[in-house]
Design a protein that fits this description.
220 residues; Immunoglobulin-like; five-stranded antiparallel beta sheet; 2 helices; 9% helix
C-alpha cells in the first residue's frame, strides 16, 4: 500500500513539472544604457604643463568593467580647452585606382619662400626714463641699465618680484597690461633699489636672461 502511494506522488510531481523546459537558457542581463556619447570638454588648472595619459573606464555587456589607458606625454597649454569627441566610422566605398602623371616644372618661387621665426611684441610702454617694458606671447622684456639684485615669485596666480639696484627715487606706479598672461606691473622705490611686481594670470615658473639692453623674463 505504501509503495502505491509513493508511486502516485511521483506521478503527480512529474505532471506538475512537465511545463518546465530543461533546455531553457539563462536570461540576458539587462543594462540601462545612457544616451550616446558625442563629446566632452576638459579644462586644466594653471599648474598643468604635461598631459601624461588618458584613461577610459567602460562597462561590458555582462556588467563587468574594464579600462583603456592611452599614453600621451605631450606638453599642453592650460589656457586651451581640450575636447574628447566621437567620430563615426565612414561607410566603406570603392577606391578607383587612377594613375595620373604630372609633368615636372621648375618652381622658382619655392626657393624664395623662407619661414622667418619672428615674434612680434604685443605691448610696449615706459615706466620711467630708466626702465621700460615690452610684452610678447609668454615673455616680457625689461629694458634698463640697472642690475637685478634679487628675484622670486609668490602666490597663485604667480607674482614675479624683481629688485633692481638703484638710488633713483620715483613715485609708485600701477600699470595695467592688455595681455592674456601678464596682467599688471607695480613699481615702487626703496632705499638703494626699486622693485617691480609683475602679476600673472596663473601659476608659472620663469627664467631670466640678461642681454645688452636689459632682461628677458620667460614663463614656463
Amino acid at each position: 500500500m505504501k509503495i502505491k502511494i509513493l508511486l502516485i506522488c511521483l506521478i503527480l510531481l512529474n505532471i506538475l513539472n512537465a511545463d518546465e523546459n530543461p533546455f531553457q537558457s539563462e536570461q540576458n542581463l539587462s543594462i540601462i544604457t545612457p544616451p550616446n556619447f558625442q563629446k566632452d570638454e576638459v579644462k586644466f588648472n594653471s599648474n598643468a604643463r604635461i598631459l601624461k595619459s588618458v584613461t577610459f573606464n567602460y562597462i561590458n555587456l555582462d556588467g563587468s568593467e574594464n579600462a583603456i589607458t592611452l599614453d600621451i606625454n605631450k606638453s599642453i597649454d592650460w589656457h586651451d580647452t581640450y575636447i574628447i569627441t566621437r567620430q563615426n566610422n565612414p561607410n566603406p566605398s570603392k577606391i578607383l585606382d587612377v594613375s595620373v602623371t604630372i609633368p615636372e616644372k621648375n618652381d622658382l618661387s619655392a626657393e624664395s619662400n623662407v619661414s622667418l621665426d619672428l615674434e612680434l611684441p604685443e605691448q610696449t610702454g615706459k615706466i620711467y626714463d630708466f626702465i621700460a617694458y615690452t610684452t610678447y606671447k609668454n615673455k616680457i622684456k625689461l629694458n634698463t641699465n640697472d642690475e637685478i639684485i634679487s628675484d622670486f615669485s609668490i602666490g597663485n596666480p604667480s607674482k614675479i618680484i624683481v629688485d633692481f639696484k638703484s638710488n633713483a627715487i620715483a613715485l609708485t606706479k600701477n600699470i595695467r597690461l592688455n595681455h592674456s598672461l601678464f596682467k599688471r606691473i607695480d613699481f615702487g622705490s626703496h632705499k638703494g633699489y626699486y622693485r617691480l611686481v609683475i602679476y600673472l594670470d596663473g601659476k608659472y615658473n620663469y627664467n631670466i636672461q640678461k642681454d645688452s639692453s636689459g632682461y628677458l623674463i620667460s614663463l614656463q
